[in-house]
Design goal:
Elements (H helix, E strand, L loop, with lengths): L3 E5 L8 H11 L6 E5 L1 H12 L2 H12 L2 H4 L16 H18 L8 H8 L13 E8 L5 E4 L4 H8 L9 E3 L2 E5 L8 H6 L4 E5 L14 H20 L5 E3 L14 H14 L1 H9 L2 H14 L1
Helix pairs in contact: 1-3, 1-10, 2-7
Length: 302
């Protein structure tokens, strides 16, 4: 029997496209045996492995993003958007607020405090990931050794918090002797890892940002995220060589913090999966030995 694994890449709000893809796979009764996620891919993958329902997953994220606690994080302010319809006084207030937070964060490891981060992730269930209904793991990066870490056991909240700890934005997470940050620093789309936890064929979801520059960076966050986008883009190209099939939802021009476009992003994921549905079904139905031969020939070619 085919053992389909999903490799869910990171990308902040762009990673919500994974939900749309899961909706289509579920609708088509395509069984998922294993999921490995990085950053937002880890959050989505863990919650889907918990709910086993794309509908519940979608409702969770929409409700969470519309929650006043989430809105008060002010993620959109990190992009320094133009005033638009916002009044001048409001714009000035936001300008001063972000600079005040930046000043305070100079003596911390991240923009958001440990307390704020814990509040965010407290909305997630906190069962051991070993007990999830679908086999799951998350990728993080150890700041001490520089190694990629595949997290296969432990509390769900802690695991996804570590995998999605965007450097300088969220604080690193201590697990044993490791100091962990966002897995995207070492593994943007974890194709090989999901094979290690039980998949014999991998559908990779790539939501890395398009690196064609439209505007010059205006602040330190622009530079930070710009350099991350560039490194992630090139790392993804390398990692995706081992995927059996790649889906790229039409979200690659969006900023990582555009959570206000949650429904639009989920829809883009659905459209990507529907457009590739014949290829997905072909991958699922492919004979194991034929697939193994294809993998062997690909390695020889590389």
């Amino acid at each position: 029997m085919a053992k389909l694994g999903l490799a869910l890449g990171g990308g902040g709000a762009r990673g919500l496209a994974h939900i749309g893809i899961l909706k289509v796979l579920e609708k088509e009764n395509i069984k998922i045996n294993a999921i490995t996620g990085c950053s937002m891919g880890a959050i989505v993958g863990a919650l889907y492995s918990y709910f086993e329902s794309a509908e519940k997953l979608e409702s969770f994220f929409i409700n969470f993003i519309n929650n006043i606690d989430f809105e008060e994080l002010g993620l959109n302010e990190l992009k320094e958007k133009s005033k638009g319809k916002t009044g001048t006084l409001t714009h000035i207030g936001r300008y001063l607020k972000i600079r005040y937070n930046l000043f305070k964060s100079l003596n911390r490891l991240s923009f958001f405090t440990e307390e704020t981060t814990n509040d965010i992730f407290s909305h997630l269930p906190n069962i051991p990931i070993e007990k999830l209904k679908i086999k799951f793991s998350a990728i993080a990066t150890d700041l001490i050794t520089g190694e990629e870490i595949n997290l296969t056991e432990g509390p769900l909240q802690t695991i996804v918090k570590a995998s999605s700890a965007i450097p300088a934005i969220f604080p690193p997470v201590k697990i044993n002797n490791m100091l962990l940050v966002d897995g995207g620093a070492s593994e943007s789309v974890p194709v090989k890892i999901v094979k290690n936890i039980g998949a014999d064929r991998v559908l990779a979801i790539d939501v890395t940002r398009c690196i064609q520059l439209t505007n010059a960076p205006k602040n330190l966050f622009d530079i930070l995220f710009r350099t991350e986008d560039i490194s992630t883009f090139h790392l993804s190209k390398l990692r995706l060589e081992d995927a059996d099939l790649i889906l790229r939802p039409n979200v690659r021009k969006l900023d990582w913090s555009e959570f206000d476009k949650v429904k639009e992003i989920i829809k883009a994921g659905e459209e990507a999966a529907e457009s590739m549905l014949p290829d997905i079904k072909k991958l699922v139905d492919k004979n194991y030995y034929l697939l193994a031969m294809e993998h062997y020939l690909k390695k020889l070619k590389q």
